[in-house]
Amino acid sequence: MILHGNPTLFSIIGFTLQVAVVATAVATVIGLPIGLAIGLGRFRGRQVLRVLANVSLAIPPVLVGTFLFVLFSPQALLGSLHLIYTRRVVFVAQTILALPFVVALTSAAVQGLPPGLLNQARLLGAGRLQLWTLALREARIGVMAAVIAALGVSLSEVAAVVILGGNIYGYNQTLASATLYEVNGGYYADAVAVAIVLIALTLFLMCGLAVLQHQGNGIRLRFRSAT
Asked: CB of 12 within 8 A of CB of 172?
């Protein structure tokens, strides 16, 4: 299957990459501000949001997929979007599954910073945006770990994809769901081939992010003097 250049396999690889990149990017754009707000904010209900973010990591993806299926069903609240059994719903599902990892791990990373660091920045006149930038710089290893976790979910999660997308052959399959498809059909050799590609792709992307995680000297910030 791999050596013969199966066009369906290459199509699945391409779709898997699209889903992983888009879902991780969207989850990061949405999740970073939320994680920073929970980790650095001083508002009522922050502890509750922190607990909810951590609890969301333990919710089985099959429950998320089932809930979204009910929500997106034709007669349901969001049925008019016509997402069930489409490619778009795979992007939506993987983004929702990746989001809690960005939020929870980013929040934990910035909370682990020395309290004096941010207090000193405040005394030097740092605004909210500067504080958030400083927190991201100092907690960049933890934040990158959050992105890596989100990417891992986007690549490997299968339950929600199958429930919402139907695991339609050659159309909206990811490498993970294609592996399940081949196993269910009894094509174990093809399942192993697809699994090998998934492992290789995952290792390649994770190694790339790991390199980025340990590079760079951060961003230098200047604060106006307190008067």
From this structure: no
Find out whether 53 and 104 touch, Cβ atoms under 8 Å: yes
Q: Which two tokens stand for residue 123?
A: 């005394």
- d(CA 21, CA 26) in angstroms, rounded, equals 9
- Stated pTM of the model: 0.85
Contact between residue 131 and residue 122 where contact means Cβ atoms under 8 Å apart: yes
Cβ-contact 165, 88 below 8 angstroms: no
In order of their start, the domains of the chain are 7-213 (1.10.3720.10)
Condensed to tens digits (0 to 9), the pLDDT of residues 187-225 reads 998 899 899 999 998 898 888 877 776 664 444 444 444
Average pLDDT across the chain, whole number: 86
Q: Can you tell me the distance from the alpha carbon of 130 to that of 192, in angstroms, rounded to the nearest whole number?
A: 49
Give the whole-angstrom CA distance, residue 110 versus residue 32: 11
CA separation for the pair 9, 17 (Å, rounded): 12
